[in-house]
Specification:
single chain, alpha+beta, Helix Hairpins, BirA Bifunctional Protein, domain 2, 2 domains, 8-stranded mixed β-sheet, 3-stranded antiparallel β-sheet, RNA-binding
Length: about 425
RNA sequence: GGAGACGUGCCGGAGCGGCCGAACGGACUUCACUGCUAAUGAAGGGUCUCGUGAAAACGGGACCGGGGGUUCAAAUCCCCCCGUCUCCGCCA
């Protein structure tokens, strides 16, 4: 939810932001019109209501003889109040609908334009020089090939039991996932995050409040029998954690949520159908922070640094991109994605993402803090991936050896009982 | 799954349909008293929103789990939902 104060006082900032996102600028003017209509309607209702309150008080004080006349007069007023209230409610709803169409104000410096207009901030990794990654000196196998020979996952049986885009992680695959998650957990603990396992089924209000029923609505699994949604990320549950609260922000509140994530992948039929790159269910450790809005940008960089540290620990080649305005979710004011090199595809694929939602999400969820003047103001929220199942793809592909083994980066070895290489398991 | 009880402000806890934004405690803030702390006395409070105002303020409206309804008038009566608790049953 945008700030109505800004809507009234600095509509230009909103228009400029819409422009950079490639969203209709007219939404801003629609919302301004709806806001003033709503204020007029509320004003009418409230003055009638004030009259009604006064006349009801008179009835209460009146003697038995005076009452019938007063009540008759009040009856008429009651109907007017009812009508005015209905009108005010409608105007309020219309305003909210209009305001909801406006996305968060993009932070200065975010590249304008669509998906392809991202700006690369950095290329990094052991085989990276400049903006290119040195090729392997043998023909790379893809992660499916590698994973199957290592018996790290079982795609056929995943499909048999649950359908396409489902899989079993088996043996070393399962351990690798846990190793990544645990390494990330230790890192976030070190950085002051409180670990939490979150609910993966949430109520409609929470799904709505976090913004996932907007443009992502078709991505979300819904259980009609219980009126609950399956979360696509623990961001949902972590954002809802402090909903309707006034929290203490002397120190930022940082949580690391561990959960399974569910995504319908509705619009992506035929895309990434092979392997575990794009699946309906996976695990993720998600960072989430509540901070003073003044500190949001610094916190965003802090999250990005945690992410690059983790990728570095995995000895991966990757690039960090500043996502263009048009490719941001409606809640995000800025987003950094980190994409790892995938040799078999000769391209970069997203492993992490971190968004600064400024006060947009918190306003909708009613999460506030007391500022220096003791006023209640919405907090800023930020989220970012610490590790997901998908990292296995980059890990297998980038660390594959000519002999079919996969090297285990040093930092990950303690989480795998000291294992230094993953060995193929022959099928009898 | 069945039966019942309950949900009031930061906390506890009252509340005949009008005199209830809400008694009374406690906590908190300010002031007074005290050499300091404690104790004591006095005063003050929440949230959202609209309007006037440069602002401090002032005035209006709303908020007693949420949403509807009845009524001139609802914390109080009725309905639905959500949540908490107790008992019984069921499954582990």
């Amino acid at each position: 939810m945008i700030d109505t104060q800004i809507l009234r006082e600095q509509p230009e900032a909103l228009r400029a932001s819409q422009e950079r996102r490639g969203d209709p600028v007219s939404h801003v003017d629609d919302a301004i019109a709806a806001d003033s209509a709503r204020r007029t309607a509320i004003g009418e209702f409230e003055s009638l209501r004030a009259q009604q309150n006064a006349s009801a008080a008179q009835v209460g004080k009146a003697s038995k003889e005076e009452r019938p006349a007063l009540i008759a007069a009040a009856k008429e007023l009651a109907q007017q109040v009812k009508d005015a209230q209905a009108a005010a409610n409608d105007a309020e709803a219309a305003f909210e609908a209009a305001a909801a169409r406006i996305a968060n104000i993009v932070i200065d410096g975010v590249p304008a334009g669509g998906e392809e207009n991202f700006v690369t901030l950095e290329h990094r990794g052991p085989r990276t020089s400049g903006d290119t990654v040195a090729p392997l000196d043998f023909e790379p196998r893809d992660h499916v090939d590698l994973g199957e020979s290592l018996k790290a996952f079982d795609l056929a049986r995943g499909a048999k039991v649950s359908g396409t885009r489902f899989y079993y992680l088996t043996g070393i695959g399962m351990r690798l996932e846990l190793a990544l998650m645990n390494m990330a957990l230790d890192k976030t603990l070190d950085k002051g995050f409180t670990p939490v396992t979150t609910p993966t089924l949430v109520r409609p209000e929470i799904m709505q409040g976090t913004g996932f029923l907007g443009e992502h609505a078709s991505e979300v699994y819904y259980l009609p029998a219980d009126d609950l949604y399956l979360v696509g990320t623990s961001e949902v549950a972590l954002a809802g954690f402090h909903a309707d609260e006034i929290i203490d922000l002397e120190q930022p509140k940082r949580y690391a949520g561990w959960s399974t994530c569910y995504r319908r992948e509705a619009g992506s039929a035929g895309k990434d159908t092979r392997g575990i790159l794009r699946v309906h269910q996976f695990n993720k450790l998600e960072m989430f922070a509540y901070v003073n809005p003044a500190d949001a940008e610094a916190e965003h960089e802090r999250m990005r640094d945690i992410q690059t540290d983790l990728l570095d620990a995995c000895e991966l080649d990757y690039r960090v991109i500043d996502v263009a305005a048009g490719d941001l979710g409606s809640s995000a004011a800025r987003k950094f994605d980190i994409e790892a090199w995938v040799p078999s595809q000769g391209t970069y694929r997203e492993l992490t993402s971190t968004s600064n939602c400024t006060t947009f999400q918190a306003r909708r969820l009613k999460t506030r803090f007391k500022d220096e003047d003791g006023k209640n103001r919405p907090v800023a929220t930020l989220n970012g991936t610490a590790a997901t199942t998908r990292w296995i793809v980059a890990l297998l592909e980038q660390h594959q050896q000519a002999d079919g083994t996969v090297r285990v980066p040093e930092a990950l070895q303690p989480y795998l009982g000291g294992l230094t290489a993953l060995e193929p398991i022959p099928t009898p």
